[in-house]
Write a structure and sequence with these properties.
By secondary structure, the protein is an alpha+beta fold. The chain has three domains: about 65-140; about 155-215, no CATH class; about 220-355, no CATH class. Helix content is about 35%, strand content about 20%. Strands 1, 2, 3, 4, 5 and 6 form a six-stranded antiparallel beta sheet that branches. Strands 7, 8, 9, 10, 11 and 12 form a six-stranded antiparallel beta sheet that branches. β11 and β12 form a beta hairpin. α10 (about 270-285) crosses α11 (about 330-355).
């Protein structure tokens, strides 16, 4: 009787607990650490578990060989990349992305388009015997964008791509006029924004400094020693030795006179093609009349610059040489004209000996 009463009391207590909601208790979901530990062990997370989700989707890289990129000398890789950049990314080109990295039995290096937010990429892979293969990424996510830059420092790339080295050598005013005529989309209403004007001016100044640094060091500017250094690099033997001489290369005629004590500078400069104008005029039976025009506005230091040439039967002026003189006197004129005459005779004799066209 007592045992039956105890069982009835236990059943009544269980029923009371169920009525209070204690039987509705559910197991908590597994913690993230346990999920990650299970994945590391090769197990799958339970359904509905809050596992770590990827924030981005990995791009599948697909590559295609560039035309002419099957076998590029590693020493010519930079020139090849630069030439390709002028075609597809004029104004910016491609920039190396990191160093050479190992991949299986070879090494490779990536090049990224330098335009703002452009995802296009190239890949150079080293092969045997010092050659490199150059490929371009053809994945949809790695194509060139519109190459329109905004808020960048300096001249935007899409405008810089319109300016070839010849256009950069224009005077700033001529360059702006060329932009208005050839590319009106850059100049809304035919007006170049003031910010763009300042950027173009800075570009010209930078190009001029770089060109001058190829001839002299920055500390030599405005000094007689720097002038002597420049004239030595413009002598014909020096140009021939460095493989930079041709019929259109400017070089010093005869001996340049640079005397620091008396502050005298007398130099004659010309090219082979211009010197032959004097010989061709004499071959045509024309009188050997020499015309000289002088200006003081071509040299920063204010030296006199003489333009020496001849006149054709149609009254067209044909340049023979240039003369730079700090003192516009008879001695300077005689030195320049004598150097021009000797250079003409030497050029004609040299071409005749080599059986070249005069």
């Amino acid at each position: 009787g007592g045992g039956g009463g105890a069982g009835a009391a236990a059943a009544a207590g269980a029923a009371a607990a169920d009525s209070d909601g204690a039987g509705d208790f559910q197991l908590s979901p597994p913690r993230r650490k346990s999920v990650q530990r299970g994945r590391a062990a090769g197990g799958a997370p339970a359904a509905g578990a809050p596992g770590k989700q990827p924030k981005w989707k990995r791009t599948v890289m697909e590559w295609e060989m560039l035309p002419g990129g099957e076998a590029v000398l590693e020493t010519s890789l930079d020139a090849f990349i630069e030439a390709h950049g002028r075609k597809v990314a004029a104004g910016r080109g491609f920039t190396p992305k990191g160093k050479w990295r190992a991949s299986f039995e070879t090494r490779y290096r990536d090049f990224a388009c330098s335009f703002q937010k452009c995802p296009a990429m190239l890949k150079a892979t080293r092969t045997a015997n010092g050659f490199v293969q150059v490929e371009t990424c053809i994945s949809a996510a790695k194509q060139h964008n519109d190459h329109q830059e905004e808020g960048v420092r300096g001249l935007p790339g899409q405008i810089k791509g319109l300016l070839s080295p010849t256009k950069v050598q224009m005077r700033p005013k001529e360059c702006r006029a060329w932009l208005r005529t050839k590319h009106p989309e850059v100049c809304p209403g035919g007006v170049i924004p003031e910010k763009l004007k300042a950027q173009l001016t800075t570009l010209h100044e930078t190009a001029s400094k770089k060109a001058s640094q190829q001839l002299m060091e920055p500390g030599q500017r405005g000094r007689y020693g720097g002038l002597v250094t420049v004239l030595q690099k413009l002598e014909r033997p020096y140009l021939i030795e460095n493989g930079r001489f041709n019929a259109h290369t400017s070089f010093v005629l005869g001996e340049a006179l640079v005397v620091e004590e008396t502050e005298r500078v007398t130099v004659a400069i010309s090219t082979e093609n211009l010197l032959l104008n004097a010989y061709r005029q004499s071959c045509s039976g024309l009188p050997s009349l020499i015309c000289v025009d002088t200006t003081h506005r071509l040299i920063i230091e204010g030296h006199c610059c003489m333009l020496i040439g001849t006149m054709s039967p149609t009254q067209n002026f044909h340049t023979i040489a240039y003369g730079i003189c700090s003192h516009e006197d008879t001695a300077a004129h005689e030195h320049v004209l004598h150097a021009v005459r000797e250079a003409v005779n030497a050029t004609v004799a040299d071409r005749a000996a080599k059986k070249m066209r005069v």
